[in-house]
Amino acid sequence: MNMFNRLAGVLLAIGLWLPVGTQAADDAALWQAAREGKAIIFMRHALAPGIGDPAGFDVDDCSTQRILNDVGRDQSRRIGDRIRAAGIEQATVYSSAWCRCWETAELLALGKVENLPPLNSVFQRPERRDPQTNALRAWLATDWSGEGTLVLVSHRTNVRALTGVNLASGEMLFMRVAKDGKIEVLGTI
Known about the structure:
Elements: H1 3-17, H2 22-35, E1 40-44, H3 70-85, E2 92-95, H4 99-108, E3 113-115, H5 126-143, E4 150-154, H6 156-163, E5 172-177, E6 183-188
Parallel strand pairs: 1-4, 2-3, 2-4
Antiparallel strand pairs: 1-5, 5-6
Helix pairs in contact: 3-4
């Protein structure tokens, strides 16, 4: 038996012993933590085809930016439905000022959306990355009351800068933030 076949056999044997339904149980624990205000939902905006924004875009003019398409809008509504199905009817929602994030946040239909500047895109803006990430970490550690469910809608680069995790469009990361600003990633859905 060659090395590849042995490795495949070991992996198969390990897989047979993993508990069935582990992902569903993990998801339920994440939703419970969010409902109880013990986890923050940090998500990337829904599908907005392309990368970055066109040269010369204006953050106050959606017609100059990369925006959600119909699939992204439907995705946003379905994410909101999924959050409500998990028992979260209302949330405190903060968003980047970029239109694709703002529209995602509004279509979740979880409550009033407010702008939080540290959530604004740092893509191709390396001089903003650390100051904004530090400002967000400080806001979460000291300014966020921790009451109720908090949903943050931002960009892949911002999520990665704070947590080290790359999210797909519309993916949610559940995290805790200690008073010293240390981030604990609990999981993703």
